[in-house]
């Protein structure tokens, strides 16, 4: 999907979230990246092949998971 230079990381790349925005709808809680990834405000993702990536927010410093 990416047609500019330098090319955005692909949907399967570890840094896929670095791709440029193609559509941004903060009122609905999602953005479409240049590589076809749907990025949700909770940091979850839907990849172009239908694979779901669970939300992965970083925990604040000093926070302990229960």
Radius of gyration of CA atoms, rounded to a whole number: 13 Å
Strand content: 15-25%
Give the overall pLDDT as a whole number: 88
Backbone shape: globular
| Percent helix | under 10%
Structural class: mainly beta
* Cα distance spanning the termini: 41 Å
Beta-strand segment tally: 5
Strand order of the largest sheet: 1-2-3-4-5
Segments where pLDDT lies below 50 for 5+ residues? none
Largest sheet: 5 strands, antiparallel
Number of helices: 0
What order do the SSEs take from the amino end to the carboxyl end, as H and E?
EEEEE
InterPro entries: DUF5999
Pfam family, one: DUF5999
Write up what this structure looks like.
By secondary structure, the chain is mainly beta. Helices cover 0% and strands 24% of the residues. The protein has no helices and five strands. The protein has strands at 21-25, 30-33, 38-40, 45-46, 52-53. Strands 1-2-3-4-5 form a five-stranded antiparallel sheet, with no helix packed on it. β1 (21-25) and β2 form a beta hairpin. The N and C termini lie far apart (41 Å). The model has no long low-confidence stretch (mean pLDDT 88).
What's this entry about, in short?
With 66 residues, this protein is mainly β.
Summary keywords:
66 residues, mainly beta, 0% helix, DUF5999
Structural topology:
Blueprint: E1 21-25, E2 30-33, E3 38-40, E4 45-46, E5 52-53
Antiparallel strand pairs: 1-2, 2-3, 3-4, 4-5
């Amino acid at each position: 999907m990416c047609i500019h230079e330098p090319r955005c990381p692909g949907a399967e790349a570890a840094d896929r979230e670095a791709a440029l925005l193609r559509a941004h709808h903060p009122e609905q809680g999602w953005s479409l990246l240049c590589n076809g990834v749907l990025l949700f405000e909770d940091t979850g993702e839907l990849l172009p092949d239908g694979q779901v990536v669970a939300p992965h927010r970083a925990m604040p410093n000093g926070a302990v998971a229960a």
